[in-house]
Amino acid sequence: MQIAILLFERLTALDAVGPYEVFRSIPGADVRCVASVPGTFHTEHRGLALVAETPLSEVPNPDVIVVPGGYGEVDVRNDPTTIAWLLAAHETSTWTTSVCTGSLVLGAAGLLQSHRATSHWTALDVLREFGAEPTLERVVFDGKIVTAAGVSSGIDMALALTERLADRTTAETIQLAIEYDPQPPFDAGSPAKAPPAIVEHLRAQSRF
Amino acid sequence: MQIAILLFERLTALDAVGPYEVFRSIPGADVRCVASVPGTFHTEHRGLALVAETPLSEVPNPDVIVVPGGYGEVDVRNDPTTIAWLLAAHETSTWTTSVCTGSLVLGAAGLLQSHRATSHWTALDVLREFGAEPTLERVVFDGKIVTAAGVSSGIDMALALTERLADRTTAETIQLAIEYDPQPPFDAGSPAKAPPAIVEHLRAQSRF
């Protein structure tokens, strides 16, 4: 089973690394970070870069596609090589997934027409431009397309998908291996729960 | 404020990237992935590598030290350059932290003597060899040393620490920005919650 995680410049690291850390432990899974030109990709902020060692051309038919988000997704939307790969790979994939604003790449490629989908909460309205029906759910399965909400939601998405790719025992084994028993010190992780002033502050800063 | 995240070969990616994704959004924080020799560091599994662009020598006095875990931590324990940096940096740090088996590096450096500390649940007993008092808590503050449990716990640790480094509003703002409203599809994230057969399976596979 081949799982391709797309990397690009100015991605959000956790969008990619959350699913990676789950999928890499599925027995038999071959997880690869891929990019149109292999190399080093910096995150939105300084201090960290991720490496994709595999060119897109080497993984034309992954079973699972993962498209992370981040400020750089706008450039991916406009990159004909990556969009052509995505469209061709989606033809044969078992699951095509995104985390955070990675769903805008799926949308720009035309894959979300008439699909229920999610994204980072500040980007939900943008999904409508692509004919999708936005929803605030954390993980959205619609046909073979799976979209996850902002950043950290990729972990939940990957665990839910692992049950379908393998079985529940495998998913629970991985959950225990990464000790995913979340205990956030605050309850501010969604716009419905965070103090309204914080929601407004982030909405005002949003690029959407 | 300088925050140094140590990278090394065969690390667990999420141990490093969870805290990175939180700390990088603290206003004024300068977060750097550091290594004795800058370069590319592969994770325990194939398919992904992280880049540290800053040598330890360039960040001798970080305010916060983050030591992730992973199979490669045994080599770090035996690397005189990194241990010397850690000991010296700990002299002046505000907080010295670890995620997962990164606490074994702190222990090997002698920093956990008579400290309450945690680690990946399969590694808890190893902490005793370093004079520490192991605990199954997810995030353990003891003096200026903060240890987090397995892999994904680094996110919780970093949010709790952000409140102390900045304030609660900053921590909640970051929680909302990374949409950390966890909804694990299963409840198997700790040895107390997972099916006993899964706990035994992973314990039997453990290198400890």
Structure explained in plain terms:
The structure is a homodimer of 208-residue chains. Chain A is of the alpha/beta class and 208 residues long. The first copy, chain A, has one domain: Class I glutamine amidotransferase (GATase) domain (Rossmann fold, 3-Layer(aba) Sandwich), CATH 3.40.50. The first copy, chain A, is built from 7 helices and 11 strands. In chain A, the strands form 3 sheets. In chain A, strands 5-2-1-6-7-11-10 form a 7-stranded mixed sheet, sandwiched between helices. In chain A, strands 3-4 form a two-stranded antiparallel sheet. In chain A, β10 and β11 form a beta hairpin. In chain A, α1 runs parallel beside α5 and α5 packs antiparallel against α6. The longest helix of chain A has 13 residues, at 80-92. Chain A is globular, with a radius of gyration of 16 Å. At the A-B interface, α1, β2, β4, α5 and α6 of A face α1, β2, β4, α5 and α6 of B. β4 (49-52) of chain A pairs antiparallel with β4 (49-52) of chain B.
How do the SSEs of chain A run, as a string of H and E?
EHEEEEEHHEHEEEEHHH
Largest sheet of chain A: 7 strands, mixed
Radius of gyration of chain A: 16 Å
CATH architecture of chain A: 3-Layer(aba) Sandwich
- By CATH's scheme, which homologous superfamily of chain A applies? Class I glutamine amidotransferase (GATase) domain
Largest interface summary: A-B, 69 and 69 residues
Number of domains of chain A: 1
Number of strands of chain A: 11
